[in-house]
Amino acid sequence: MENKMMGCAVLAFGLMFLVLNASGSPSNDISCRAGITTLLPCQSFLVGSGPASPTAACCLAAQTVNKQLLDTPPEARKAVCDCILKYGKDVGAKPEKAKQIREICKIDGPAPCN
Predict the structure, then answer these.
(1) What distances in angstroms separate CA 30 from CA 3, 26, 43, 63, 96, one per listed residue?
(2) Which of 9, 13, 30, 31 registers the highest number of CB atoms within 10 A of its CB?
(3) Nearest C-alpha neighbor of 68 from the set 27, 106, 104, 100
(4) Is residue 104 within 8 Å of residue 59, measured between CB atoms?
């Protein structure tokens, strides 16, 4: 019985955390963590240790983050872009590979992090 109560309390706390985080921004704004997590399928390509071309999962991830960044207000977008670019630099991502993703994955429109 005590374990069941503890489990319910943990579940309730987790749901409260999700609701508070979700209600903080009703728009499609993206966070740095969400952007980095979404782009993980591209990491091996970006650092040059993976396939010669981005995978379908990488293309989908890049298209998703691109759209979310374009839907994010300019000040928040700059902060997220700076954070994602810093992470890329920290893991050894090659800038020319990022440009290739836009071309190969057919991501049109303005680059939100330029």
Answers:
(1) 36, 11, 19, 13, 24
(2) 30
(3) 27
(4) yes
Q: Distance between CA atoms of 101 and 62, rounded to whole angstroms?
A: 8
Of 47, 73, 43, 60, nearest to 105 by C-alpha is 60
Which domains, from first to last, does the chain contain? Answer: 29-114 (1.10.110.10)
What is the residue-averaged pLDDT of the chain?
80
Render pLDDT for 24-57 as a digit per residue (tens, 0 to 9): 444 567 999 999 999 999 999 999 999 999 999 9
Cα-based distances in Å from 14 to 3, 21, 32, 39: 16, 11, 21, 25
Q: List phi, psi (to 5°) of 53.
A: -125, 155
Q: Which among 88, 89, 69, 71 has a CA at the least distance from the CA of 79?
A: 69
- Which residues contact residue 24 at a Cβ distance below 8 angstroms, ignoring those fewer than 6 apart? none
Query: CA 70, CA 13: separation in Å to the nearest integer?
Result: 32
